[in-house]
Design brief:
The complex is a heterodimer.
Chain A: H1 2-21, H2 23-26, E1 34-35, H3 40-47, H4 50-53, H5 59-62, E2 67-68, H6 71-76, H7 79-85, H8 99-116, H9 127-152, E3 165-168, E4 181-183, H10 184-198, H11 214-227, H12 231-244, E5 269-271, E6 274-275, E7 286-287, H13 289-293, H14 301-304, E8 306-308, E9 314-316, E10 326-327, E11 330-331, H15 332-345, H16 349-360, H17 377-391, H18 398-407, E12 414-418, E13 421-425, H19 438-444
Antiparallel strand pairs in A: 2-7, 3-4, 5-11, 6-10, 8-9, 12-13
Chain B: H1 2-11, E1 20-29, E2 40-43, E3 49-51, E4 57-63, E5 66-72, E6 79-84, E7 91-95, E8 106-108, E9 113-115, E10 123-126, H2 128-131, H3 140-143, E11 150-153, E12 161-164, E13 177-180, E14 183-184, E15 197-203, H4 206-209, E16 220-225, E17 232-245, H5 258-270, H6 275-280, H7 288-297, H8 303-313, H9 318-326, E18 330-342, E19 346-358, E20 364-377, E21 382-396, H10 434-443, H11 452-458, E22 459-479, E23 482-501, H12 506-514, E24 516-519, E25 524-527, E26 533-557, E27 560-586, E28 591-593, E29 601-602, E30 609-610, E31 617-636, E32 640-651, H13 658-661, E33 663-673, E34 687-699, E35 709-715, E36 722-728, E37 737-750, E38 755-774, E39 784-806, E40 810-828, H14 835-838, E41 853-857, E42 871-873, E43 876-878, H15 881-885, E44 894-899, E45 904-914, E46 917-927, E47 930-932, H16 938-943, H17 975-981, E48 988-990, E49 993-1005, E50 1009-1024, E51 1043-1051
Parallel strand pairs in B: 1-7, 13-16
Antiparallel strand pairs in B: 1-4, 2-3, 2-5, 5-6, 8-9, 10-15, 11-12, 13-14, 15-16, 17-18, 17-51, 18-19, 19-20, 20-21, 21-22, 22-23, 23-26, 24-25, 26-27, 27-28, 27-31, 29-30, 31-32, 32-33, 33-34, 34-37, 35-36, 37-38, 38-39, 39-40, 40-45, 41-44, 42-43, 45-46, 46-49, 47-48, 49-50, 50-51
Classes of the chains: A mainly alpha, B mainly beta.
Amino acid sequence: MKCYKIRLLLLLISLGTLGTGCKKYLDAKPDISLATPERLDDLQAILDYIPHMIVAPSSDECSADNYAIGFSDYNALAEQQRRLYTFQTDHLFASANSDWGIAYRKIYNANTVLDALPKIAAGPGDVSQRKDVEGQALMIRGSTLFTIVNIWSLAYDAQTATKDLGIPLRLDPEFKVRSVRASVQDSYDRIILDLKTALPLLPGIAITPARASRSAAYGWLSRVYLAMRQYPQAGLYADSALQLTHQLLDYNTLDSSADFPFPFDNPEIIFLQFSSSQLTATDIARIDSGLYAGYKANDLRRTLFFKPNGEGYPVFRGNYTGQYDQFSGLATDELYLNRAECYARAGNVQAALDDLNSLLVTRFRTGTYIPLTGTDKAAVLKLVLTERRKQLVMRYLRFMDIKRLNKEGAGITVTRILNGQSFTLIPNDLRYALALPEDVLALTGMPQNPR
Amino acid sequence: MNKIIFFLLLIGASNVNAQTHLLSGFVRNAQTGSAIEGVSLKLRHSGAFSVSAADGAFRISMSGTRDTLDITGVGYSRLSLPVSSLTHLPLLLQLQPETTSLDNVVLNTGYQSLPKERVTGSFTPISKALFNQQTGTTVLARLESITNSLYVDRSSPGFPKIVIRGLSTIQGPRSPLIILNDFPFNGNLDDINPNDVENITILKDAAAASIWGAQAGNGVIVITTKKAQFDRKTTGTFSSNVIFTGQPDLNDIRTFSVADNINVERFLFSQGRYDFTLNNYPFLAVSPVVDILQKQRSGLLTSAQADVAIAALGQHDIRDDFRKYVYQKGTNIQEALNLSGGTKNIGWTVSGGWDKTAGNLKDSYDRKTLRATQAYRLTDKLQLTTGIDYTLSRSLSGEMGYGQLRASNSLLPLYTQLAATDGTALPVYNNYNKAFTDTVYGGRLPDWGYYPLTDWQHDRTTTTLQATLLDIGTAYTLLPWLSVNIKYQYGRQEVNSTRLADAQSYFARDLYNTFTALDPNTNQLNHALPKGGVKDVNNNLLVTQNLRGQFTIDRSWGRNQLSAIGGAELRQLKSDGSYFRQYGFDNLTYTGTPVDYINQYPDPLYGYTNIIPYQDGETAGLNRFVSFFGNAAYTLDRKYTVSASGRRDASNLFGASINNKWSPLWSVGAAWDMTKENFFRQKWASQLKFRATYGSSGNADPTKSAFTTLEYGFNSPYTQLPSARISQFYNPELSWERINIFNLAVDYVTMNERIAVTAEYFHKRGVNLFGNQPQDYTAVPADNIVTNIAGIAGSGWDFSVNTLNVKGVFNWRSQLNINLYHDKVLSNNLPSQFVSDLAGIPNYGVPGRAVASWYAYQWAGLDPSTGDPRGIVDGKVSTDYYAITGENAKVSSLQYIGSAQPKLTATLGNTLQFKQITFSIQLTGKFGYYFLRNSINYSNLYSGYSNNADYGMRWQKPGDEKITTVPSMVYPGNYARDAFYTASSVLFSRADQIRLQYITLTYSFPRPSLQVFMNINNVGLLWVKNCYGIDPDYNNMLAPPRNVAFGARINF
């Protein structure tokens, strides 16, 4: 009898120890779709998350001179878009869904990967994946920091770069550390360091342009040095990228009757990146008439890039994404133009023309292209810049180009006219560094860009 | 033999030398026949004393040959009986229940049942009689108007929340824990048949609730259904009633007039608002007025013709169509049968219920419940109880109601006609321009129009729920005062939701057409989707398992009484879900057709390419809990009671950190029954008892994690490999919320038990509460992150007064509950606060203010010359809306309006009984708080998202500012101006209200025992404090319509 009682009590106690002893019981995953990043595949999955990692800000193209908007369309826009369009000095961005937020989200995701990577024990045969994941994260961080510095800081100027306000350089996911603004020089130094560190880790060509690759990192470096107006390096990195991939798409193979004529698997694409905005959207953004007039009748881009909208204005539809979203990534055409510009600036006029001609022959109706010629360095450079603008329209490069070229006296003024009222952005205006989100400034105490 | 020895010990018999005679028998409730536990039996001369056991059995040893047995049971009338050695045994003692007594009910915590006289904590029992005064199919809906310290917060439209003793959290989960038959209930409570409910107890303070640990912070509602008992005569109850529900009042939604609707569209058209769509997307739908204006502009109509056409539209009001064609009166039929009985060794109950509801929107709900419980006495010491519950419910969707029926993403114009004059369904303005889609591709596309009046018949969702709950329990009596219980509950709830949109439905036709393209070479239409319906199936299975081992001590010796429990439990919730879609579904053959999910297909209108939506997938979840608990109460001389409880919880929700997993929660309490003191012989009190407790409960949010968490979603279209989103950010300090409660109470009964009052004071302090911390989204991709940053303090009074005002042929009883509550935020370490996060948004948690409090922008009237709303910046009147609402505005610039939750809630019930007629009337009131009235937001008006009757009262010319506070209309919309006005102090009103909840009239026939009744529910508002006549509980939404029930209940 007594024995029985003791047994029952023992049962109870053992029920208890079941809980304490069985740590495993409580370590079960509460949701099958949840994971803590503890495998290399988890980290790759973060980098492959399209809605976060492929999306880039759009306010650079929105602030450039490729397009104009009609007054009634303007009135129908959201307020921040209206302010952005008219170069207002403040209240352009708010909340984590703004351009600032989506750019730094990529950086946070990359930092999460870089932070988790050393904590994952090395497994047999994962050396190359480990390097690849690290390289991808570094390239994403470097390229995204560049997009940010291009929008929210003034153009790079070697004379003032150590004093000019750069951007917060977030290098790990520890978010309790307060954001501070680095100088423009430090910002560019970090961008170049990240991209260069990524180079030896990455494969030459990735399995998809949606992933970072060495060719993409070279491409970004070329873009960065171009923005810094350090042309020899810009040319060399463009060349390095083209060594790995230099395919051009023959525009004669495309069907201009399609709404979006460019294919999803365009061989020119080196790195896929989407941008979209209400302002630059097809149908609303009327392409600058002078720019549109520059395409000759036998230039396939005249019809592949553009179509008339409902009101008869030419609008851009030549998105390299092959769909409604616009393309802000890297493609070989841009690198041909980068290299051509750098050759021209270095006085290697023939090499510049060769690059230009090999690109343009694929853009004209077969057999109608007349190769460009010239011997004058300045004239060829001008030619390159003109063709650059025509090829890279709505590619989210114009804002950078205006900023850097105005530093060299190009004198490009951007003007908006709305119902007779005009808004202008004169060369080297302080507003070329857009206003940081006011809520972020209030939380961190970071200074606003001088106005 | 052992047993007798223990009994002798138990009763502390003193006259061992005298001749003894053993009296035995059972104590029963004279009305229900059920056994009564805990009844005191005392022999007047010898002083021998005993207490009845769970099955009502008692034994008492008599010395001598004659004595008088005094029987006192809490909640029952006293009974005295002469006994002798010749008295026939067993004695069957029938006690009459006392209906006004405070101690009427046994309190159930889910772990043990306690007589009220021995508890220290704060419990609100719900009397079955009161509970059954209402009809209606759900349990919770019946609690609102009768329960002390419980009210329903309706501040977020469509999501009513039960609140017990005010808020205990700012951002954490708010729902109280629901216990059904001793274990937490995770299914759908609407599927429990109220006719099966035996008793309900609300656990309010720490001594009552902390036994439930980390889930009890918001209070606990313990629901127990009818259980098998031994030694009962076979009885049954059959009840049947029908409820008629009226139509909702569509004017509850304060919309602008048809004429204003047209005027706004005319104005926006003149401003070119629709030009972009009209010019670039001719295939997109525009409203009928815009369509006419566009035809006028392009010369297809003269201006006179356009005016006539628009005037004709203006004759119509969509609400008339809703009243005529959509809404109908609802009915609900409820039938329930309960049977029970029991022999000495076997007890049983069987019950069945059938509910059938036809809703206002032609929706239907059908529920069948079946329930059986058994109790077996296997040996003298071992009892086995089993229970099985089965619920099958099926709901079928109906039509879209007013306010739900919308165009693609805006409101339908008010003049929209749903039916032609002959009643045939008309297509309404929705996604695409019907004139365009009817003609594109030579008119070869199938009809793309949306016909709301008939579409619902082709697009219906059926939800079937099957729930099974199996209970098995054993109780083994080791010693007369010590038993061991093992309980196991297995619950399985399977919900299947099937949406079948047949080939005629808009949903299926829209998809079919979207994946249609014209091949320019062959001039053929290519369809990527098969013709036919679309079937979406969603299956969810939830399996819960609970295992509890518990010992129970219930011992009295000498002047001492000890009741204690202790044990451990394991709990697991496992959910599995799957969802899939079939295209080209054929109702007759019940088959779908495979489709290509890989390739892109061009859209015939936009020209984008799309992939056929792939809607198949699976989900799985697993929550596990391990808990240890203990609770003990010791009573001396039946006067002084002390109690203590403790509980530790662990779960797999918080990942690895052991510290967070183990959260010990405890309580202590004491009670003093002063009326039992010898010095206390006062006429003015038949009971005067004091109670005090202190302790903690927890509140866990199962959705939060302290670790970087990935959520795997779809495969990347580029790599075809899984991709993942970071869903939670590294937040190592995250832990559970903790609520400490101090409770002080007095129970007072007087006037021959005709007046019973309980007054309780409580003070609670929430620590480690979740709060939204605004984030620098440079550092982390979120505007806010939840951290344990906040603390609150709350205190209040609960009064419950039960009186029998008039006694005799005519009886009049009243139940009054008054609950006062006041709270404030102690700390909430917000590094910075934006006024836009506070103004017009309650529950933000500003230190020093009520937990749910309203802030508003200061209002300085309308500008007399422009009608612009004016606020205050730096003490000056301003229309700089960025300065007022922007990041640099100071919180101190806001006006504090007051609490968003009531500070005083009250319910008052009166029951009048004259012979066989009983009349009950129940009032509820909420006082001392505010609500925000909806008004016009011009930005939303232009987008078509919302409109408001205030539009008609807007400022239009100088001088209007004297008669209105509605700002002038400006175009384009100014977001900051709208944000300012819609959260400005001028739009706040007191929400105080008194509501007549229900009236019930019952006639009881004595033989056979039959009751017939009528009940009117949701009778309506009697009084509101705001002068606009707005019902604050249903602000700008449809209030539930009044319903009338007729029914009968027969006992046999």
